[in-house]
Specification:
The chain is of the alpha/beta class and 311 residues long. The chain has 14 helices and ten strands. An eight-stranded parallel barrel has the order 3-4-5-6-7-8-9-10. A two-stranded antiparallel sheet has the order 1-2. The mean pLDDT is 93.
Amino acid sequence: MKYSTFGSYQFSQLTLGTVQLGMNYGISNEAGQPGLEERSKMLKLTVASGINTFDTARQYGNSEEVLGEFIQNSAGGKGLNLVSKFKIHSQNLSHPERAWQEVYASVRQSLTALGIAKLPVCLLHKGEEPVREVMKVLPEMIRRLKAEGMIDIGGISAYFPEDIPWFSEEDEIIAAQIPLNIFDQRLIKNGGLSQLEKAGKLVFVRSVFLQGLFFMSPDHLSGRLYAAKPHLVQLAEFAEKAEMSIAQLAFTFVRDLPGVSSIVFGAVNETQIRENLELLRSKSVHPELLGQISAAFSDIPEDIVTPGRWK
């Protein structure tokens, strides 16, 4: 397991996303939320495998409580890097003190649920609210959280690629969580990933498998996702050409990008954790084929690469 050093912390190359531990999540997830025994086994396996970073949020059902129970009841919970998130509702963006009250209450609830005194990393869980308005209050929110001794590293979980220039040079924003995958190359095309790397940010990449869309049968798609059918067919063809599974191709595409500190992955059982650990050891895609793949998927419609628009 490789690690990225930021301050006094070392973040594992893989981060376990725990939304599935707190609620039913993922378009291809037919198993639902794991039971108590399975969750315990998963967390123990994760730590034993060298993964020391966990991603959660107030909005992830009882995910924080699940992690908190593990930390309190297991010696293996010591030394974990916990990443959680808070929201700022749009009506509070123009009222800094109301925004602070909302942020303070949310982070305090996270600390209580997790059973810790300070969050190693705390991010704004940004949605579709204008980033211009967000950045008027976010740096001050992070400064105050640090002053209160509630967090060490502050940042933002970005929603749109065009959000990046607004915070990449902001000193208080040290960490960023971004969506990026073989279909969603917007942050590669617009230079956003390179911008974050040059600024020395801690970069977590989520949605590597596009919330499980890559594993859906093209013939079972409906609604807006029906438009993804030819792209999924082509993805399978590229995987065959690379002599890799779709998972290996999608994972290594992101793994080998410069500037990626840690890949956030989700799981509903121990097998999926082992599979992601194995993906970490996969061979790289030949540069010539990688160029073909990048070109083929460089302009996928936003309705496909933005899960919030799948409804």
